[in-house]
Amino acid sequence: MAETILVTGGAGYIGSHCVLELLQAGYEPVVIDNFHNAIRGTAAPARPRARPGPGSSPPQSPPSPPGSEELPESLRRVQEIAHRPVLFQELDITDRAALQELFRKHRFSAVMHFAGLKAVGESVQKPLEYYRVNLTGTIGLLETMKAHGVRNIVFSSSATVYGDPKYLPLDENHPVGGCTNPYGKSKFFIEEMIRDLCRAEKDWNAVLLRYFNPIGAHESGMIGEDPQGIPNNLMPYVAQVAVGRREFLSVFGNDYKTDDGTGVRDYIHIVDLAKGHIAALKKLKENCGCKIYNLGTGTGYSVLQMVRAMEKASGREIKYRITARREGDVASCYADPALAERELGWKAAFGLDKMCEDLWRWQLQNPTGFSKN
């Protein structure tokens, strides 16, 4: 019997790529999402990925499984890539009654927890909303898991928990908690809650994954990052400039202590990141207690290096303007990913060119993301 894995927030950018990896690794994901950061599926069939050969018909989406609601567009396409149905339910992580009902219906062996609000700038404006959704949502999830005897969780954390780096590269022993915004603090608080729970109850196992900067898309070009409104992250913005949706990129500061004066970050291909979650699920099987791993490449690239890499991938000029530094930005941030390689047997396989080529393919095939307009 395939293991059934609950994926919260599984219609988003990272979640949908992880659902695909779960399907391809033989798991049975059950996905919940409240459509806060996802587009509802269209009735029209998606474009075939490859021109069918003579006498063959284009690949069709498998039928939705019984009891599965209208799929988000991202998951409809995941079904098409994987040729396997995805079980989906529209559900808000803060709805405890609905969570209880879900856990009564399925026997989960583990939970992958992505659901939450995630815009740094917005969190500064709406701290209570971020704490309500991210913290009480997670507490409700953990309590429901406990009530139903599910004690294995992979949590989607972030390198923001490290705050301003005291040293580089950042390893898992670097101090945490000096976060500069409520989004980062909420990730840190959830890490602490899960660590305390594992200390108190020895039958719990958790893997906390601290992501660096996921970019790129599945190589089919059918799923990728689709920010609603103006992108908060560098690479979706750069891609939108390349495709003509935005006029120019604002580069926040060119007077940092880096090679070209612009901020340096550790970018990781989304498919590498997703594979890290499969490795984390396997780690839970060892009754590992609470483990923490960085998911990054260990290499930092500056904003201008990223712009040049995207120009190379797209064959288009990307206009940019230097503007003032943005509050809360650090000069450099990149991972030491050695622990994940040692203990999970996981290592990022894709380099910068591949990240940009796959991002560009997604952007070119989907100039307005998942929506049709």
Automatic annotation (TrEMBL):
Signal peptide residue numbers: none
Top-level taxon of the source organism: Eukaryota
Keyword terms: Carbohydrate metabolism, Galactose metabolism, Isomerase, NAD
Record-level Gene Ontology MF annotations: UDP-glucose 4-epimerase activity; UDP-N-acetylglucosamine 4-epimerase activity
Record has Transcription regulation as a keyword: no
Chain positions covered by the region annotation Disordered: 44-73
Entry keyword Nucleus: no
Biased composition (Pro residues): 55-66
GO cellular component: cytosol
Catalytic activity reported: UDP-alpha-D-glucose = UDP-alpha-D-galactose; UDP-N-acetyl-alpha-D-glucosamine = UDP-N-acetyl-alpha-D-galactosamine
GO BP terms: galactose catabolic process via UDP-galactose, Leloir pathway
Cofactor field: NAD(+)
Record EC number: 5.1.3.2
Pathway this chain belongs to: Carbohydrate metabolism; galactose metabolism
Domain NAD-dependent epimerase/dehydratase intervals: 5-296
Family: Belongs to the NAD(P)-dependent epimerase/dehydratase family.
Stated name of the protein: UDP-glucose 4-epimerase
